[in-house]
Amino acid sequence: MRRKDREIRDKKEIQNIMEACQVCSLAFSGTQEEYPYVIPLNFGVIWDGDQAALYFHGAGEGTKTERMRRDERAAFCMYAGEELALKQPACRSTMLYASVCGTGRLSVVRDMEEKRRGLDALMRQYDRTGGGFEYDGDALERITVLRLLVEEVCGKSNRG
Hints:
Blueprint: E1 7-8, H1 11-20, E2 24-28, E3 37-41, E4 44-48, E5 51-58, H2 63-70, E6 73-85, E7 94-108, H3 112-126, H4 137-142, E8 144-158
Antiparallel strand pairs: 1-8, 2-3, 2-6, 4-5, 5-8, 6-7, 7-8
């Protein structure tokens, strides 16, 4: 990272930023014939010590599923607290924010208990009331849950 003064490596700070984010953009590689592919998604995160796993849900088919099957490696980016700081002269204007970017490997969650935990994490990301989430049994079996096991992660902040 070029701006080391804005870099965040502390896992607790990174976790706090992730908790404040609403959208995670997931990026997939392309082939020689196609462009890379990026898609904004709702997400949930589960931390096990310093290890993070991001969870996403969706259909079991489509572009992200096809790309994941070809190459399980993915990159992600999320940001929170964005606010424009206009200054004079105009070239000193900046965006105040905190972000988290990283890489990892995607897989389809097959275990029903992990699938439920991943969906619970996703729901907690947007509903801070504490849980008690219920799922229709048939829908739980049909829905596809993806897990991105984070291999590298770094935060960045420009809040002042």
